[in-house]
Amino acid sequence: MGARLRAVRTLATLLLPALALLLLGAHFWRAGLMPVAAACAVMVGLLFVRNPWSARIVQGVLALGAFEWLRTAWVLVSARAAMGQPYGRLLIILGTVASVTLAAALALRSSPARDHFRTGR
Q: Disulfide: which of 48, 77, 105, 115 matches 62 by Cβ 3.0-4.6 Å?
């Protein structure tokens, strides 16, 4: 495989985790948790550090981020249900965001990501 195609595959693989981290950062920013939002931005920077430890840290943060989305869904759906408001669409949206965030963590186990982070195996 050519170097150019390999670079495109790596970029495509790292794009989903980057977007998931930025969305998670925006979530924390909106909640007023600026240090946590800044940490999410730092995690995007870790995608450019080509060491196995950086991949594992970002994976862990994304896994925790998926749980944060599920926690947020629980809180918001419970509040809407208590007020008698519809909550189905909210549950679908936040469930999808949590699933995509988890998929972003799993994308860091793909072959292009392993090559990028030099994790071998």
A: 105
